[in-house]
Every structure is written in C-alpha cells, then in structure tokens.
Amino acid sequence: MKTIVSALFLAASLGAAHADTAAQRGFIVYRQVCGTCHSLKQVRYADLADLGLPVGDIKAYAAQHQVPDGVDEDGDPKTRPATPEDTIDSPYPNDAMARLANHGDIPPDFSRRALTQRGGSAWIAHMLQSYASVPPDLKLPAGSFYNTAMSHKHIGMPSPWHPGQVTYRDGTPASVPRMAQDIAAFLDWIARPHLATRHRVGVAVLVYLAIMTGLMFALKTRVWRRRKF
C-alpha cells in the first residue's frame, strides 16, 4: 500500500513539474516573440501567478503595456499602464494598425488557440517547426510563407524563429524545436489553466481511496478473524 501511494504521488509531482516548467519557458517565448503580434484577451496578467510567476514580475510585465483609459479634456483617447487585473490585449492600438503590420491579416488571439485548433498544441508545435525554403517550381501568393504543415503549403505568418533568440532562466538552449514545444505548452496551459490542479486533485482522490480500501480490508480481516463458526 505504501509503495502504491508513493508511486501515485511521485507520478503526479513529476508530471506537474514537467508541464509547469515547459509552460513557464513557453511564457518567455510568448513574451519575447509571439506577444509582439498576438493577444491573450481572455487572460489577465494576474492569471500568470498560477504559472508560478512572482507578483513583482507580473506587475512589471503589465506596466510595459498601455490600455485604453477613456478620453482627455479635449476628447482624445488616452491610455495608462496596464495593471495585473487587466487582460493581455493586442499590442496594436486598433485593427487597422494590426492589418497594416501583418500583410492585411489580423493576428489571431491565442487565449483558446490550443483548444480550437484541430490537433491542439501538438499540431501548433509541429506547424511552428515546418517552415522551409520554397521549392523552385512553387509560386506562393503575395504575403505568404512556405510551411509544409499547412494544407496549401503556405501561411500568412513568417517564421518567428532563429536559434537562441530567447534566453531561458534555467539555461536551456533555445533551439527552434525547444521554443516551438514550449510555446505550445504555454498555449495549452493558457487554454486550460486549471488542468494541472485538477490532475493533482484527481491523484489525491485516488490516494485517499487507496488508503480507505486498505483500511477497510484490514478491518474486515480483523473482524472475520474473531468471528466463530
């Protein structure tokens, strides 16, 4: 019984630690690369605390961004630094600017991308590693880029990668596959931020049931040993 309980706890701890570490690295990728175009409109800066980010870091990250704050005395729109309670909105002030900077397309919001995308986060990681040189006999539409993961072999987003472009705090080399897998893990966490907690609760319930089963078995054995026939 003790061995089973220990194994359950160990499995839960290792699984959660691995997922959280990859998602934490993925946030660094989002912050330094993806966040320059894509929003997380269903996520507050404060929600990043559940990922293990210190409150001070969250406040500093939020303050780097401006959010609408009504109008001034002349009726012109004004802004203020974001706070942890604000959502992570688009880095562009409006859709027109977003289109102008992205070949006429508006970069999609990433809040639930891992849930809405067919294939989920695994497909996202695969797609982000599937940029390649254009074959000589292929002519791409204007403003598109060759990507073998796409059904038509092209996508409106250029490759965001070059090796070593981000610096991981844990010293992990920032290879293209590593960055792609980490941002996918972060998007998976963002889409289901309480999944790891539910897994830990589930394991705790299994441990509780295992203990209770063992106690009931021991009690039953003791009672029937005393019973005379």
Structure in words:
The protein has 7 helices and 6 strands, in the order αβαβββαααββαα. It starts with a helix and ends with a helix. It is extended, with a radius of gyration of 24 Å. Strand 5 and strand 6 form a beta hairpin. It has helices at residues 2-32, 55-63, 95-101, 113-116, 120-128, 176-191, 195-226, and strands spanning 40-44, 66-71, 77-81, 87-88, 145-146, 154-155. With 229 residues, the chain is mainly α. The model is unreliable at 7-18 (pLDDT under 50). It has a domain at 2-39 and 90-129 and 157-226: Orthogonal Bundle (Cytochrome Bc1 Complex, Chain D, domain 2). The longest helix is centred in the last third of the chain and has 32 residues, at 195-226. Helix 1 crosses helix 6 (176-191). The strands form 3 sheets. Strands 1-4 form a two-stranded antiparallel sheet.
Short characterization:
Its main location: membrane. 47% of the residues lie in helices and 10% in strands.
Q: Which structural class matches the secondary elements?
A: mainly alpha
User: Within the largest sheet, what's the order of strands?
Assistant: 1-4
What is the CATH architecture term of the domain at 2-39 and 90-129 and 157-226?
Orthogonal Bundle
Average per-residue pLDDT, rounded, comes to: 86
Broad shape? extended
Measured on Cα atoms, how large is the radius of gyration?
24 Å
The total of helices stands at 7
| Helix coverage percent | 40-55%
The succession of helices and strands, N to C, reads HEHEEEHHHEEHH
Distance between the termini: 31 Å
Q: What is the strand tally?
A: 6
CATH superfamily of the domain at 2-39 and 90-129 and 157-226: Cytochrome c-like domain
Strand content: 5-15%
Poorly predicted runs are: 7-18
CATH T-level fold name of the domain at 2-39 and 90-129 and 157-226: Cytochrome Bc1 Complex, Chain D, domain 2
Main beta sheet strand tally, sense and closure: 2 strands, antiparallel
